[in-house]
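During the no-cost extension, the postdoctoral fellow (Dr. R.K.) reprocessed legacy sequence entries with the updated structure-token encoder. One reprocessed record is reproduced below for audit purposes.
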Amino acid sequence: MVLAGILLLWSCEKDDMPKDVIVIDETPFILEHGALPAPSLPSDNVLTIQGVKLGRMLFYEKMLSRDGSQACVDCHRQQDGFSDTSRFSIGVELMPGLRQAMPVFNMAWHTNEFFWDGRAHLLRDQALKPIQDPLEMNETLPNVIAKLNNSQLYKDQFIRTFGTGEITSEKMALSLEQFMLSIVSDDSKFDKFLAGDAQLTESEMRGRMLFSTEYNPFFPEISGADCMHCHGGANFENDKYMNNGLDLEADIADIGRQAVTGSPIDRATFKVPSLRNVALTAPYMHDGRFKTLEEVIDHYNAGIKESSTVDPAVLNTMVTGLFLTKQDKQDLINFLKTLTDETLQHNPDYASPF
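Re-encoded structure tokens follow.
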């Protein structure tokens, strides 16, 4: 009889609970990353299903901009590898940015800070800067918080994610970080080739060989394009900042990482980007000066310019160039195109939640 009474009391209490109560949901988000090595995710911002969902909502939310006309996605479009095909993104005041928008995928594998110059230590730091940049979304964080507080949809989602409806810039940053960490590119033709599920053409295979073979000035017939020094590993980047010989010393207009560190050795060095989805993310370089992959390859083949901080591996090729023939260049491009991930372009988990 005592047990029956307890069960009856529990049943009544459950039935009396309001149907519209929103409760915290800490269900972990499992990051699927295929054959990529397991990333080191932040221990103080564990990915959850609701946290990733909130970040995705904010990534597509135009209220983050001053006039409600732009969201993060407007400069990081999914179909373009989460990048911007404009040389410089145009902000809400119709003014161009100062650098080309970097792609937003595989951020979980970046361990050397964010933006071209690394001025954001963590991804959560990066997340809030475009909102406040006068050349981008040109809004204040207090204004964004006030706008989100007028939305029951957002207050409910903050409760599900954090257990409270209080909206803060810190929680916004953590949520955006979670969503961006969830964007994974690991299903290109090259990934399928490595898994034994696709075949590369003869040209693609030769391009792969050129990509991974070192420059050899003494034996031009076996010299390669020497791309692996800067674009190696599973994510095709090296987590470094480098000067790749774009300008002569007198022509350097953007000092890059030096503006962050203050060190002369960082003059005109920029974050080395991943080459995954590179066929989708034109234009190229920090200032978007190259419109095509052909122009990029021509630069490395015969366009290196000397300045005080050019990386030695790049500078060493300046005298002779890379010896690349027209066919070599085409084979390289064909290989680079195998790094395009069509699944990333169309994955509904990354699309607008609205």
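The first strand starts at residue 241 and ends at 242. The domain at 189-338 is CATH 1.10.760.10 (Cytochrome Bc1 Complex; Chain D, domain 2). The remaining legacy entries will be reprocessed before the final report is submitted.
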